[in-house]
Amino acid sequence: MSGSVSPLAPKTFVDMPALRGVRMATAAAGIKYKNRTDVLMMVFDEPAAVAGVFTRSKCPSAPVDFCRQNLGGGVARAVVVNSGNANAFTGKKGREATELTAKSAAKAVGCAESEVFLASTGVIGEPLDATKFAGVLDDLATAGTEAFWFEAAKAIMTTDTYPKVATRSAEIGGVKVTINGIAKGAGMIAPDMATMLSFVVTDADIAPAALQALLSAGVGPTFNSVTVDSDTSTSDTLMLFATGAAAADGQQRVTDASDAKLDAFRTALNDLLRDLALQVVRDGEGARKMVAVTVEGAENDAAAKRIALSIANSPLVKTAVAGEDANWGRVVMAVGKAGEMAERDRLAIWFGDVRVAVDGERDPTYSEAAATAVMKAQDIPIRVEIGLGSGRATVFTCDLTKEYVEINGDYRS
Amino acid sequence: MSGSVSPLAPKTFVDMPALRGVRMATAAAGIKYKNRTDVLMMVFDEPAAVAGVFTRSKCPSAPVDFCRQNLGGGVARAVVVNSGNANAFTGKKGREATELTAKSAAKAVGCAESEVFLASTGVIGEPLDATKFAGVLDDLATAGTEAFWFEAAKAIMTTDTYPKVATRSAEIGGVKVTINGIAKGAGMIAPDMATMLSFVVTDADIAPAALQALLSAGVGPTFNSVTVDSDTSTSDTLMLFATGAAAADGQQRVTDASDAKLDAFRTALNDLLRDLALQVVRDGEGARKMVAVTVEGAENDAAAKRIALSIANSPLVKTAVAGEDANWGRVVMAVGKAGEMAERDRLAIWFGDVRVAVDGERDPTYSEAAATAVMKAQDIPIRVEIGLGSGRATVFTCDLTKEYVEINGDYRS
């Protein structure tokens, strides 16, 4: 496999502003390799509100279990992220490793272990030697700086071909607040190198319950609407922290997610989550094209999303996209297999603006040339009208290429 | 793509015996190409009992709709199978084509249209010109012979690299009966060239309801337990016919599927269905290895099957098999994403006879060399013990190779 950057990578990277209340630094702890940056520490000098969403896997990693347990406290002082080892399927040793890491971080920062959050990415099934963190975290706790976002995004990359950063701002009650986020993932989701991790921080002052409500609502059409290969990691982690530093500018703490003062913030947050999620898809393993699958007219939104995911996860649809083949019959197939209500004679399908099928038949004005022209582009919109109701969803994916097979057939050996 | 035969093809083909009561012949009707065999006709000179199972797609082809409608009558006199056009997503024109084909067949054979069954495979969305069948079926109705099974299997091949045939015999009440079957499919299941079709005929005398019960029960662990790419065709069709010719030898008609006289027949039928289903997997597009995924100790059999399918459909598991990589972490991932009850700390995983993980951790005696040796073979058994109940299932799949991407990226163009 080549080390080249995805052709779908951003042409330029945004300048990431410093964000008050969080400092970050990286180090080489020697988790898997010597002299390779493999640990990122985020420190909140004042307690930050915290929210999180995690993998739905029934076999989650030890750090996912650990974060879920600490989330109830609602307060974060430190986050430790390592690469090289996912600490997944590591049993009792895995739990001991998270405890030891949290203990080291808590000592370094001067906080409770319940205020520490952890994420790990790398090979699974290998015991993680957490003693390697001890001295390193002491140094990182004091070394952190506020303007370290781009470096932090680079530090958590594994098979990613570019760092993923995004920033937005909004006003809450007339006070400007900032939201910064980073993500890693180059396959939504493999159990080893391509786990999806994302950390988003705002200087807004928002209570934990409200923050969780915002994040849980925001993840549906963003991180939970992207798929590279339908495979779900043991370690997927998305966390949102609010340092509350904007209180110094007079921002009044918001405790209720439905407070109208949060409207602009919600919009900015959702936009940032979408930005990061799409960056993950655009760095999908072997990806050459991005596909936006929109399903309209389904029985309800949930049905629309299941149909859209059926299309987006279909190997036959994804290989057709890779081959620039306007093979709309495979879209019909994927609608049919989704198991949701659909009537052949009401279906219509568009590639870009070209309607290829309508009323259960090929479009009478179908032009192979026009449809193929759409498939030559880097971004391919596929739209399906079910014609039964008003359910609607959009899911983002990439094509399935020989490079995907190569990357994933050769990775571990 | 090469035209070479799958490395998993049978080394030799079984001699298919003649089967009393059914005659077959093929012809070139010019459905898509000129001078290419594209239509197979089966004729039952006496009314045969009929049973069928079909795709679960919500967008089935016109022939699937047609067969379902005629199945209630329980009687078959003729079957017409064509390649070159799937008559799927063809709307009203599609229904008109099935009606015209049935009319031509009924006239040729001298039976009712409700005694005709149809199956089509090929490109979808193209109207099928059924007028091309008219004269051809008249000839085929008289030209058929009883010893035509291997030729019939070859005639329905599309992207298949070898014909799929199987035969078994059993006794019913002391009278020997024979079961012959053919299948096509080289991807469980694409909407165009790789649709799965299978036709099984016995000379036993079994009533339609009993025949349907046998087939519905038999399909679960056989044709419904194989997957190449998780994609479901609009046209999947498996039909079972009983000519009743064995009545001449004194076999008494069986009307109840639970009749003990059918025990040996049931075993033989299920064995034949499994044989044909595995031949389909072994001809999976781009396949180099076959994988048998067995899940034991799940909450129940249905949960075991869902977990086994999650493993068998995972692109990351299938690419690891292609790469001969004993990447058991991806099996853990696939167990976790299945959504069924599973406890990490109770899981155990075997590749062949090599236990690679136990009690939620890598096996203490894990040998990479031993696990890798298993992956070098052509047939890869993967076994997962969930440790929660007694649910059990086995699912068969193949690896995911660059050739799969090549075949399906280039097919239509």
TrEMBL record, chains A, B:
The active site is at 195 (nucleophile). One of its GO terms (biological process) is L-arginine biosynthetic process. It is an enzyme of class 2 (transferase). It comes from the Bacteria. Keywords: Acyltransferase, Amino-acid biosynthesis, Arginine biosynthesis, Autocatalytic cleavage, Cytoplasm, Multifunctional enzyme, Transferase. Its EC number is 2.3.1.35, 2.3.1.1. It catalyses: L-glutamate + acetyl-CoA = N-acetyl-L-glutamate + CoA + H(+); N(2)-acetyl-L-ornithine + L-glutamate = N-acetyl-L-glutamate + L-ornithine. The record marks 121-122 as: Involved in the stabilization of negative charge on the oxyanion by the formation of the oxyanion hole. One of its GO terms (molecular function) is L-glutamate N-acetyltransferase activity, acting on acetyl-L-ornithine as donor. Substrate binds at residues 158, 184, 195, 285, 408, 413. Pathway: Amino-acid biosynthesis; L-arginine biosynthesis; L-ornithine and N-acetyl-L-glutamate from L-glutamate and N(2)-acetyl-L-ornithine (cyclic): step 1/1; Amino-acid biosynthesis; L-arginine biosynthesis; N(2)-acetyl-L-ornithine from L-glutamate: step 1/4. It is found in: Cytoplasm. One of its GO terms (cellular component) is cytoplasm. Its main location: cytoplasm. SUPFAM superfamilies: DmpA/ArgJ-like (SSF56266). Catalyzes two activities which are involved in the cyclic version of arginine biosynthesis: the synthesis of N-acetylglutamate from glutamate and acetyl-CoA as the acetyl donor, and of ornithine by transacetylation between N(2)-acetylornithine and glutamate. PANTHER family: ARGININE BIOSYNTHESIS BIFUNCTIONAL PROTEIN ARGJ, ARGININE BIOSYNTHESIS BIFUNCTIONAL PROTEIN ARGJ, MITOCHONDRIAL. This is Arginine biosynthesis bifunctional protein ArgJ. The gene is argJ.
